[in-house]
Amino acid sequence: MNYDAVFDKWHEECGVFGIYDRHLDVARYTYWGLFALQHRGQESAGIAVTNGDDIELAKNMGLLTEAIKELPKLKGHIATGHVRYSTTGSNSPRNIQPLVIHYQDGHMGVAHNGNLTNALAIRRQLEDDGSVFQTTMDSEVIVNLIARSKAATIEDRIVEAVNKIEGAYSIVINTTNALIGIRDPHGYRPLCLGKTEHGYVLASETCALDVIKAEFIRHIEPGEMVIINDEGVRSRIYAPVEKIEKKLCVFEYIYFARSDSNIDGQSVYETRLNMGRELARETKYDADIVMSIPDSGTTAALGYARESGIPFAEGLIKNRYSGRTFIKPNQEERELAVRMKLNAVPEVVAGKRIVLIDDSIVRGTTSGLIVKMLKEAGAKEVYMCISSPAIEYSCHYGIDTSVRKELIAATHTVEQIREYIKADKLHYLTQEGLCRAITNLESHEMCFACFDGDYAVAVPEEQEEGVKYVLE
């Protein structure tokens, strides 16, 4: 399992970044952009730079600062970058992106965010036709389809390739003479366009534009491809109209995106405040303080406090230097790992009725330990509030998810979960409340499949129970 087992969170697969600018050190700017997107992927990082004639790649395992010790030396004007969590394929050096290939018409670097639901079927077909794969990622399927296309131009090759794949993808590609961004017909994963003084930028989130002082222009639309070169930016709707149906992953607002980002016209920070306000309206709990499990529940907790009038307090302190902690072999060590990351403040919590806010419960392994910690510190009662509906179904569109049987809400009622984590009360935000919190989008424009099992893109039988696409 690749998610942080102690904090029991789902993780987004990765973040992508691209820049086209003949006046900037594009490798350095890509590094800064990826630094802003580090929350989207902490397993590996890579940067590919091209000057049109040659391409150079720097990549390695680990955080960006560990992975990229030395930037590409090639003085180019186009670059793509990637930070990764693995959802398909193993956590291995050979799976680091961008993927760089050389083919008969030149070279390209490809960075992909998302997960393809039909990748395994396409890969088997390509292998039967003689294709050789170097990685276990679904992203390499895209590269092979582009390279094998007989279309006249690289742009048409890409269109032909992406019209064969299904699932979630935001892709940034640097060719010999262009930077290209593609968003799938449902827009599951975000992608935005920004402008530097002499060029343009593509990024998973607007926070990456802010860090390099690029001006935000707009979000790429579902089913759209943008082509950036010396002539500027050109848009092309590549997907058939009947296939375009916006279904942005709602977890971008709940947890994945940085609070200072704007996703498809909606402030993430304001959305999380609204989620807390909706929780307060739905529960109307009589309590002494509102707290969060830092940092995932903090903004929603502030919203709850403002709406309810109950004061916000920092009753849990997070150790920001503990790093990622993986699954522990027994309950005692798991509890120790939680205490390495979080500690209760007795002076704040003792004798208090606490509204405790978090964004989600996946397997329930952490929530109970935190409730126990607060009770041991003297809390009188703990009312757990979750700023999303209960997660009952696996995600197949780019989230590092448990198989369905491991999702506690798939096999337990809310009351059973409350008893399991030993909270005095437990409330999940309703789907209606979540929709009210996201003011800029209609409910039909978001994907709620992990809550209700309504998958907009068909899921192959071998993936229905959350089986990972792993080929080795």
CATH class of the largest domain: Alpha Beta
SS-derived structural category: alpha+beta
The overall pLDDT, averaged over residues, is 90
> C-alpha Rg, in Å?
22 Å
Q: Which fold does the CATH topology of the largest domain refer to? A: Glutamine Phosphoribosylpyrophosphate, subunit 1, domain 1
Overall form: elongated
**Uncertain parts:** 1-5, 464-472
Strand order of the largest sheet: 4-3-5-2-11-10-12
Count of DSSP-assigned helices: 16
- C-alpha termini separation: 16 Å
Estimated share of beta-strand residues: 25-35%
Work out the number of β strands: 25
CATH architecture of the largest domain: 4-Layer Sandwich
Number of domains: 2
By CATH's scheme, which homologous superfamily of the largest domain applies? Aminohydrolase, N-terminal nucleophile (Ntn) domain
Family: In the C-terminal section; belongs to the purine/pyrimidine phosphoribosyltransferase family.
Active site: 14
Enzyme class: transferase
Binding site for Mg(2+): 296, 358-359
What does this structure look like?
In the C-terminal section; belongs to the purine/pyrimidine phosphoribosyltransferase family. Catalyzes the formation of phosphoribosylamine from phosphoribosylpyrophosphate (PRPP) and glutamine. It is elongated and about 70 Å long. The strands form seven sheets. It has a seven-stranded antiparallel sheet with strand order 4-3-5-2-11-10-12. The protein has a six-stranded antiparallel sheet with strand order 6-7-8-9-13-14, with helices on one face. The chain has a four-stranded parallel sheet with strand order 18-21-22-24, with helices on both faces. A hairpin with a 2-residue loop joins strand 6 and strand 7 (106-116). The two termini are 16 Å apart. The longest helix has 16 residues, at 268-283. 28% of the residues lie in helices and 25% in strands. It has 472 residues and is of the alpha+beta class. The chain has two domains: 11-246, Glutamine Phosphoribosylpyrophosphate, subunit 1, domain 1 (4-Layer Sandwich), CATH 3.60.20; 267-440, Rossmann fold, CATH 3.40.50. It has 16 helices and 25 strands.
